[in-house]
Amino acid sequence: MEHIAIYPGSFDPVTNGHLDLIHRGLKIFDRIIVAILKNPKKQFLFSLDERMEMLRVSLNGSPLVEIDSFDGLLVDYAAQRGASAVLRGLRALSDFEYEFQMALMNRRLNREIQTVFLMTGMRWIYTSSSIIKEAAQFGGDVKGMVPAGVNERLIAKFSRPVDRRCAWTVSGWIFGNFRCSAGWWRPKVFPRRQHSSTSPSRPSAAMSRTLKPISDVG
Ligand code: PNS
Fold it and tell me: What is the pTM of this model?
């Protein structure tokens, strides 16, 4: 009998930690189905197609790993695919409560499907898709934490909007401070700020008369 495990998740994007878990999972199971949850309520950085494509490329067409997507209950999908187990990775203690809750709920829903946890490899213990995205968003180097193709996509995703924003800022500054006249861009000449008699920074003549210099004050 073939032992199939479902490795479910968001994979937004796939990390080297995920790949490590898949490779180690293949030492236990004959086949692994990596299943991405279609969740219209959640906002993802990458579309479902992009996430599936990144997984496919990263796994280099391994015949023992299938990439798929699902909606609805995980245990229903697992049963439908003939899988006997759900594979999940555990990093730090912080993962435990959520994973424990999910495993118990899945067990309640279908007692034939077992959840198998593998400890994440030491190298990946502090990495997650979310923290990697956050670092990449602000220009952090995440090379070595994600497959090379994913790194390129992260750079492309985050560099475009920043460049556009930068271009708008520069052009806004040019249009705000320069004007085009007779084919030349010349600095705009702003009128000098006049202090009005009502300006709080300068006392009016009437007020000055009533104010005494500090040294005169009793
Ligand atoms: O990578 P993630 O976001 O931690 O994966 C969560 C996932 C997809 C495994 C989980 O949300 C899931 O299995 N959803 C399917 C709906 C379901 O079966 N819910 C009941 C068990 S909690």
Answer: 0.76
CATH of the domain at 19: 3.40.50.620
Q: Give per-residue burial for 53-67: e unless 16+ CB within 10 Å, then b.
A: ebbbebbeeeeebbb
Tell me the residue type at 59: L
Strand partners, 34: 7, 67
Catalytic residue among 51, 58, 88, 129: 129
| Known active-site residue 18 | yes
Is 108 noted as a catalytic residue in this protein?
no
pLDDT, tens digit (0-9, with 9 covering 90-100), for 27-49 = 999 999 999 999 888 999 999 99
The reply to whether 46 falls in a domain is yes
Q: Which segments of 38-73 are extended strands (E)?
A: 65-70
Structure confidence at residue 179 (pLDDT): 74
Whether residue 208 lies in the annotated active site = no
- Print the domain residue range for 8: 4-127
pLDDT band for 173, please (50, 70, 90 cuts).
low
Task: Please tell me the distance from the alpha carbon of residue 109 to that of residue 115, in angstroms, as a whole number.
Answer: 12
Number of residues that make up the chain: 218
Residue 37 CB less than 6 A away from ligand 1: yes
Residue 154 lies in a domain: no
Q: Is residue 185 part of a domain?
A: no
Q: What is the number of domains present in the chain?
A: 1
pLDDT tens column, 118-140: 999 899 998 999 999 999 999 99
Assess if residue 26 is contained within a domain.
Answer: yes
